[in-house]
Amino acid sequence: MSGVLVTGGTGTTGTTLVQELRNAGVHARVASRNPTAADPDAIRFDWNDPTTYGPALDGMDRVFLLPPVESVDPLPLVEPFLRRAQRAGIRRLVMLGSAIVLPNAPSAVEMAAQVQAQPGGVVLRASGFMQNFLRPHPLAERIRRLGEIRTAAGDGKLGWVDARDIAVSAAALLADLGVDARSDYLITGPHGMSYPQAAQIITAQTGRQVRVERITEEEQAAAYRASGMPTEFAAALAAVERGIKEGREDQVSTAVLELTGRPPRAFAEFVSDHAYEWTQ
To answer: For residue 212, what is the DSSP state?
Structure first.
């Protein structure tokens, strides 16, 4: 038996990845904390419960690894899983990482290095998700309710990428073990985009007027905490906007085209696909 274990298999990227793999005739096992009984290939997986690691890996030869979310230090949970995956004989392991290293998160670089040291280890360093503009993300909720984007990033740009393009890129690496792969890919959209530019595109595409309110990093952290994010993670995420404002995150790559044979979606296309999200 062989196949792909998809951790975070019911999430934004995982759902599309599972569908892509199954459409290609690849056995995909959906791992999540609350597996659905309707899917015979769904299995319980919880980063905080190492007893779920073995059954999830059993019979699989490939893994899509989504580290614990909303954590500035996921390595202590991921490290035991990596050891278990190596003992299980996993031949390709693709981790969804981030192009942006959170402040005060020193283990992120070490975690990527440990993944790359695994047989067939690959890290996809994804830029900001376009799906952040969709509910239930706080950014999207504010646009929906108030027609407003609050940001501390000024006019700084980020290479926003559609999660569907991340999933298809991961599928290209996981569907066929014969595909040559580097150990590192920067995954971005086709161009950098600022929050004011995003507001202009949403307004032009949907007719919904969206304005930008420029706030401080501290105000952004408070807003993230109010939305339910853990305090430490909220502070780190707000601090990212300083890097965007200073131009440190304005990176664009051709990796999606290289892996999938087609260019990544532009934000205007993403907005067209989801226009109903911002209209009342």
So the answer is: E
